[in-house]
Amino acid sequence: MELLHKLPAIEQHLSSVEMKSNYTLSDYPLWTALVTPFDDNNQVDYTTLESLVDAQQAAGNGILLLGSTGEGLALSQDEQRRIVDFVCDLSPSVPLMVAVGGCDLALQLEWVAYCNNKPIDAFLLGSPLYAKPGNVGLTHWFKTLLDASDIPCMLYNVPGRSAVSISPNVIENLSSHPNLWALKEASGDIATFESFRKASPELAIFSGDDGLMPYFAQAGAAGLVSVAANAWPKQTAEFVHRSLAGTFPNLFTTWTDAVNSLFSVANPIPVKVLMHLQGQLSTPRLRPPLTHLELTDTTFIKTANSTILSWS
């Protein structure tokens, strides 16, 4: 709670950073890690993708494409380009962030160069997979990508997926880089959040865990990069605003219980199954090795859906 007094300084820092399309970062405390919809032939369903973009626009949420929730690494490079081109051509009224992930630095640099020529507003830079580099290797990896970018970047600490943690030392090493504006913290540990805050007090830190958003907000989080907002765009936006304002704490436990149902098996399986039940997706299909058949009991997500939708 004692970090709440730092919020005005953080917001002032963010308001001075504008993205390529002149969106102000501090205006978007919620970014939806958008799912990638597939049809019955397991090909990208662009008609549904447009509908999903429309839903996020209507809620005023920033859009993250091709993250882990968007199954980015299960898509070919051609599919990734086509998705980015398609969404950019829609000219959404909210900012776009694109994920940069993998383990081949040369390929990531090619991807950054491609996206630099698009009306994209930010990058999400993930840690390299499988290799488990130390602080020197991670610093070099991120600095190389930050140098190559023409737009603000959010680093992504998700040791559960990358098998390596970004340390506060890495953040300290990079804190003065002009393209570093944010960190998505998804280790699930408040103490880790605090250590990043000490390493770079002006860095905007976003919760990468939907269920922890109320607690991260109390510790000075700038916002949320959300899975839940796919299923509940407006309700999640409202809850993020309430969390940042410190209002309606009686709903925090209800929120956490509901969103935890979306992580009963590997993300994005439950949220795609729920969106299919809601009618947002024509099929809950995922790309292998993930499958919707992993979720054998939909009771919990149905209950969560009823709970959250009852707020509106």
From TrEMBL:
Note the PROSITE patterns from the entry: DHDPS_1, DHDPS_2
One GO biological process term: lysine biosynthetic process via diaminopimelate
This protein's pathway: Amino-acid biosynthesis; L-lysine biosynthesis via DAP pathway; (S)-tetrahydrodipicolinate from L-aspartate: step 3/4
Q: What residues make up the catalytic site?
A: 156 (proton donor/acceptor), 184 (schiff-base intermediate with substrate)
Q: Which GO terms describe its cellular component?
A: cytosol
Q: Which reaction does it catalyse?
A: L-aspartate 4-semialdehyde + pyruvate = (2S,4S)-4-hydroxy-2,3,4,5-tetrahydrodipicolinate + H2O + H(+)
| Alphabetic keyword roster | Amino-acid biosynthesis, Cytoplasm, Diaminopimelate biosynthesis, Lyase, Lysine biosynthesis, Schiff base
Coiled-coil parts of chain? none
Tell me which domain of life the UniProt entry assigns to the organism this sequence originates from. Bacteria
Q: What EC number(s) does its UniProt record assign? A: 4.3.3.7
Binding-site list for pyruvate? 69, 225
- Gene Ontology molecular functions: 4-hydroxy-tetrahydrodipicolinate synthase activity
Q: Can you state the subunit structure given in the record? A: Homotetramer; dimer of dimers.
Please give the function described in this protein's UniProt entry.
Catalyzes the condensation of (S)-aspartate-beta-semialdehyde [(S)-ASA] and pyruvate to 4-hydroxy-tetrahydrodipicolinate (HTPA).
Please give the family membership noted in the entry.
Answer: Belongs to the DapA family.
Q: What is this protein called?
A: 4-hydroxy-tetrahydrodipicolinate synthase
